[in-house]
Amino acid sequence: MFILNFLILILFVLISVAFYVLLERSVLGFIQIRSGPFKVGFIGILQPFSDAIKLFSKESYYIYFGNLLIYYLMPLFGLMVSMNLWTLYPNIFNLINFSLGLLFFIVCSGFMVFGILMSSWASNSSYSLIGCLRSVAQSVSYEVCMFLVLFNLIFFFSSFNLMNFYFVQIFNWLLILGYPLFLILFSCVLAETNRSPFDFSEGESELVSGFNTEYSSFNFSFIFLTEYMNMIFMSLILVLMFMGGDFFSLSFFFKMMVMNFGFIWIRGSFPRLRYDKLMMICWKIYLPVTLHYFFIFLVLMILIY
Fold this sequence. Notes:
The protein is mainly α and about 300 residues long. Helices cover about 70% and strands about 0% of the residues.
């Protein structure tokens, strides 16, 4: 039953990714005062399926000077890691009551950078390699801040169980107590998923297409699916941790939609940051604030117990 439930879940996640891309293109078109996709089907509703057919029917590159085995396997590896994260999705026949759920999330999110690292290296392209180096430095830096935020919450709850976020927030959202932590975690999620204004591994203006320059056809589609699946799952984690975590109600999914819309809104509103400013924000602002919050939670723990 668990396997069947997981397969149905992944199917719906993939469909949601397709329509999330349609939403992104429509919202960006509205922000930039132009027409989004509207010709394929009624108001462009069939555009995702048209894009998928076009993408999978394209020719796949054969690289003579790259490591072909790693080149072909790494996009699939990234997709598998993203699918593994969805085992924590709140449902009846899954591991939502898994006592080490938050630890599982930390481990899987730490694996995400390996897909970009190895696929860029196997491409044997200068642009891909520069995008790879940027992405590794960015991911390692922001993982430190993200894990410290999660460690604050783990320390406060004395557990890795994701169900605690639901029980603790029955009467009050953690967003009220830890609003700076929420903003820091949201920024770290943007950096981890390589979204604007932190999309340095995909810097089109200076790196052609970044780490995925040499990818096309189904290989590129796996990278694309991985990125958008991660965005949807990170929205779920943010809502679960800070906005009530009431995953039995429809309001939970509405809040997820608002967070997903926030990703698109930020992309349409902010230009790409300078790389030195990206690192400065992480090490000089986010890290001290998360460490100060750790001492605040330590005092609260002493007062409570």
